């Protein structure tokens, strides 16, 4: 399905002169460069564009099926992966190894250093992860299908929701529907936050029952053939107050303004600023505390991000969420989130669910 040889070739071409090999420990990066979905072990890539997957008996057959271009090194019973990784690197006779320092634990790093005291360990997290920011056509196709499953699930849940239901009931129905529609799993823990719970951006689900006057924020996503989706919609239960309506309209407009600015060459933090300035100027400074969005791919939170601290320039092939929100502590909150792919002249929105406020009658 994917051209892993080309991915390895691009990775090796980015090696700095002092780097001999990379030791990949992030499960998502292992999958990206070899196709290995087991997630347990390590991948070694050298300057000759050769790759090896180090894993245990549970996954060796999987490596044979999924990674035709990689050598499989089995971890013997009674030994640990870090030991075999160190032994393999020692046999290679190299002097420097690039590591994913953002993923490798201090404990594992200490064990590698103990076994290989003469190795120069090089920070390579960005080098390994950066190619994942630009999705190819097949990746975009899979993300779009995952997002379409989310759209279908949202359409279904609108007919399912009734006042008096618990957040847990609604969350379970969303998750079951996405699985029924072909998802292999969830991108993240589903959020169904109603009433005062909606003032917490990552409230999760609870046994709170939906009641008149509630805003209900649903943030959910699924995995389809390894790739994630992410979408948020906020709906109303019965009539809302004028302030609730104002907050909803402010968030919706802020998102629209940010979307209008998205095109290749724009700075991520400048896109964030468009939405943030509008929300603050509307009187809600301090009520939008998270970034405007994050990239999505094999993992739900990738780089770059629409945030005040990200200086990355957006390029065609990036897939990023746009999710402004306003949260009034202890009262209610609103978030609206779409998933867009950057194109040559702008963006394509992969989310198609209605954004005009939907009200569930009593």
Any overview of this molecule?
- The protein is of the alpha+beta class and 362 residues long.
- It folds into 2 domains: 4-132, Creatine Amidinohydrolase, Chain A, domain 1 (3-Layer(aba) Sandwich); 134-360, Creatine Amidinohydrolase (Alpha-Beta Complex).
- Helix content is 36%, strand content 23%.
- It is built from 10 helices and 20 strands.
- It has helices at 4-13, 27-34, 57-66, 81-92, 106-115, 125-129, 137-160, 167-180, 242-261, 268-284, and strands spanning 21-24, 42-46, 51-55, 70-74, 96-99, 120-123, 185-186, 191-194, 214-220, 222-224, 227-228, 231-237, 293-295, 302-306, 319-322, 325-328, 332-335, 338-342, 347-349, 359-360.
- A 6-stranded mixed beta sheet has the order 4-3-2-1-5-6. Strands 8-9-12-20 form a 4-stranded mixed beta sheet, covered by helices on one side. The protein has a 3-stranded antiparallel beta sheet with strand order 7-10-11.
- β10 and β11 (227-228) form a beta hairpin.
- α7 (137-160) packs across α8 (167-180) and α9 (242-261) runs antiparallel to α10.
- The protein is elongated, with a radius of gyration of 23 Å.
- The model has no long low-confidence stretch (mean pLDDT 97).
């Amino acid at each position: 399905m994917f051209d892993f040889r080309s991915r390895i070739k691009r990775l090796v071409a980015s090696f700095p002169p002092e780097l001999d090999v990379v030791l990949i420990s992030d499960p998502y990066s292992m999958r990206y460069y070899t196709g290995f979905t087991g997630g347990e072990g390590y991948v070694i890539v050298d300057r000759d564009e050769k790759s090896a997957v180090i894993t245990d008996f549970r996954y060796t057959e999987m490596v044979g099926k999924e990674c035709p271009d990689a050598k499989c090194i089995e971890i013997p019973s009674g030994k640990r992966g870090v030991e075999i990784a160190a032994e393999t690197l020692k046999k290679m006779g190299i002097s420097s190894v690039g590591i994913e320092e953002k993923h490798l634990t201090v404990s594992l790093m200490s064990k590698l250093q103990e076994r290989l005291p003469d190795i120069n360990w090089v920070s390579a997290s960005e080098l390994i992860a950066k190619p994942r920011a630009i999705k190819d056509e097949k990746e975009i196709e899979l993300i779009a299908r995952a997002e379409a499953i989310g759209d279908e699930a949202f359409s279904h849940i609108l007919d399912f929701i009734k006042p008096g239901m618990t957040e847990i009931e609604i969350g379970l129905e969303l998750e079951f529907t996405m699985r029924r529609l072909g998802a292999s799993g969830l991108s993240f823990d589903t959020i169904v936050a109603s009433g005062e719970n909606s003032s917490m951006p990552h409230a999760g689900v609870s046994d709170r029952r939906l009641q008149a006057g509630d805003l209900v924020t649903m943030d959910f996503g699924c995995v389809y053939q390894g790739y994630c989706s992410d979408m948020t919609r906020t709906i109303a239960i019965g009539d809302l107050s004028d302030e609730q309506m104002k907050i909803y309209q402010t968030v919706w407009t802020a998102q629209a303004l940010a979307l209008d600015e998205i095109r290749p060459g724009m700075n991520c933090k400048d896109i964030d600023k468009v939405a943030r300035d509008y929300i603050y100027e509307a009187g809600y400074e301090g009520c939008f505390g998270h970034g405007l969005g994050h990239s999505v791919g094999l993992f739900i939170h990738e780089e770059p991000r629409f945030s005040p601290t990200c200086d990355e320039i957006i390029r065609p092939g990036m897939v990023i969420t746009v999710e402004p929100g306003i949260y009034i502590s202890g009262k209610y909150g609103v978030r609206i989130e779409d998933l867009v792919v950057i194109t040559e002249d702008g963006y394509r929105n992969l989310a198609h669910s209605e954004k005009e406020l939907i009200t569930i009658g009593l």
